[in-house]
Amino acid sequence: MGIDLPLIWAVIIIFGIMMYVVMDGFDLGIGILFPFVKGKTDRDVMMNTVAPVWDGNETWLVLGGAALFGAFPLAYSVVLSALYLPLIFMLMGLIFRGVAFEFRFKAKDEKRHLWDKAFIGGSIAATFFQGVALGAFIDGFEVANRQFVGGSLAWLTPFTLFCGLALVVAYALLGCTWLIMKTEGKLQKQMHDIARPLAFVVLAVIGIVSIWTPLTHADIAARWFTLPNLFWFLPVPILVLVTMYGLLRAVARHANYTPFLLTLVLIFLGYSGLGISLWPNIVPPSISIWDAAAPPQSQGFMLVGTLFIIPFILGYTFWSYYVFRGKVTHEDGYH
To answer: Looking at the UniProt record for this protein, which Gene Ontology cellular component terms does it annotate, in alphabetical order (predicted)?
Structure first.
């Protein structure tokens, strides 16, 4: 029995995207929360919590995109053709956010508000269009003769726009619980106050997406609600409710680390639900990872280098977070 290279590459891409969502999600969430925090000192602390690690977080986005291009060129060509505009808008948001990161600390007081706005706008735009792209991916793409044949605005639907807003709320909760873990005093208390209503909004949008998706996609409804699948997949929504209950309890008792960890579990469960709905299609609704795979020789050649480099990425990521562990204060920075 040979090695299933498309399956291995699918796992690598899924892992890379999940790492990106987790790691870039909370620093995008900090930008989304910026309008709710007015004080310069508190905003400085918020940015300092991610300043040492934010640019390294995007390594996983590059890995996922490069792996898709090399291992599944058909999927890359279809998805990029279908999502040119939202992905360009997402990249523009990331650029504005990145420039604001570097220039805000160097700006004079009277100009700093411009970089604050760039940071806020870039974070919201990048997150929103990531959600739009995700919604379009769930909706599927019109493909004929292995080419995308839909319109340039086929991605623009009420469902995709709602997915964009849903991801903004989810990243805001991730950023909020990150700040609970990394800050103290007045800023931490404010994040505790924000976390509870944010958690309820996240639960609401998860419920709406979970209902909207099967109502508009018969194949996804059949995947979830036919027997015996229903019994196999029922633990996912149950775990979402249990995790949300635990998150609300942790926020109520002013825990430091538990809210962030439970939010990560919530993100992972949402990601799992997406995988259950679409697997094994890499170009929904009908092109599987095996249909879209590059030749085995190409996948095997790339796999050698990828399996060599991923441990190094994981290593320096772990080390950077380990070095910059602990709370952040305006007076002392990390301590």
So the answer is: cytochrome complex; plasma membrane
